[in-house]
Amino acid sequence: MLKLLALLQDGRFHSGEALGASLGVSRAAVWKQLQELELASGLSVHKVRGRGYCLETPLVLLDAEKLLSNPGGWRPQVLESVDSTNAAAFRYLESGEKPPFFVVAERQTAGRGRRGRQWISPFAENIYYSLLLRVEGGAGQLDGLSLVVGLAVLAAIREAGVAGVGLKWPNDLLVAGRKVAGILLEISGDPADVCHVVVGVGINVNMRREDSIDQPWTSLRNEVGEVIDRNALINSLSAHLDHYLALHRQQGFQALCADWEAAHLWQGKEVRLSAGAQFIDGRVLGVDFRGALRLLVDGEERQYSGGELSLRLRDDS
Ligand code: BTN
Q: Taking the domains of the chain in order of start, what are their residue ranges?
């Protein structure tokens, strides 16, 4: 399917004969592949007698060749469709692939979000990226790691032209209250010794319509008003991750704490922290050297951390 899409991605008309010649199949086989493509991808193909076939909207597909030159020398695995790039990264590891490497996909059928939610992942519109790393040196190496990843994603989104993007603890990226990217870290092995971490990043890039997302969202295209080159954005993300992960490895989250707080949209705000049915009201003081949230609750400072926590602004803030 990707071969056919690669031929059509320019948004121009291509005759059935020319497509068949490039793919080495008959015109009837081209017709069948086009129907399968529409079904599998959700894309629309215009069919005009005498002119041939063209995509309703031109697109740029992910291209492994273009993703090879990242500063960390991380190998890319580019997939057409996968359940979850995080799950795929762990499968590559189990089958003998040596970290570091990253997995990107045109779409996910079971994209994983935080707190058991699904990450909506339509075909060829966004970035679904999972970097697999080996982490040595004990649990301390993981302190603040997901917040550091947030700084790298923030830098890549700013570089793409979205100045108004910021962070929300622990690792959401928002523009004017709308979610533009999310991060999910998953760990296998012994965090106290040697383990593997998959750094999963989802960025809404060129998506313009999606009815199934149950929270306010935006995309880079909505913010900058033009189509974004996903290959260039992935390279920018890899470069910023390489930079921030090296700083974190050498100096710990301590060195990045102030940068993180400077980008935190809810610094000083009155918030409600929820863990299931329980909640705590307080004012955001910042984050500590391990990435835990510091809240002022009933006149006292308290720290909170954990993947199941979520933060809301209080109505009266
Ligand atoms: C969140 O809920 O905010 C975290 C979303 C993380 C989504 C990304 S998309 C790439 C990677 N693969 C997944 O299954 N999830 C993460």
A: 2-55, 64-261, 266-313
Q: Round to whole Å and give the CA distance between 101 and 75.
A: 5
List the residue whose alpha carbon is closest to atom 10 of ligand 1: 128
Q: Establish whether residue 117 lines the binding site of ligand 1, counting it when its CB lies within 6 angstroms of any ligand atom.
A: yes
Going by C-alpha positions, the residue among 158, 116, 149 that lies closest to residue 241 is 149
For residue 172, what are the β-bridge partners? 168, 182
Residue given tokens 């009837």 in the structure block: 28
Q: What is the dihedral of CA 138, 293, 188, 250, to 10 degrees?
A: -40
Q: Which CATH architecture has domain 2-55?
A: Orthogonal Bundle (1.10)
98 is catalytic: no
- Residue 132: phi and psi, rounded to 5, are -105, 125
Closest by CA to 32, choosing from 63, 4, 60, is: 4
Q: What's domain 64-261's superfamily in CATH?
A: Bira Bifunctional Protein; Domain 2 (3.30.930.10)
How confident is the model over 186-218, as pLDDT tens digits?
999 988 888 999 999 999 999 988 778 889 999
Q: What is the pTM of this model?
A: 0.93
Is the shortest distance between the CB of 217 and ligand 1 below 6 Å? no
CA–CA distance, 57 with 67 (Å, rounded to integer)? 23
Question: Which atom of ligand 1 sits closest to the CA of residue 113?
Answer: 2
**How far, in Å, from the CA of 109 to the mean position of ligand 1?**
12
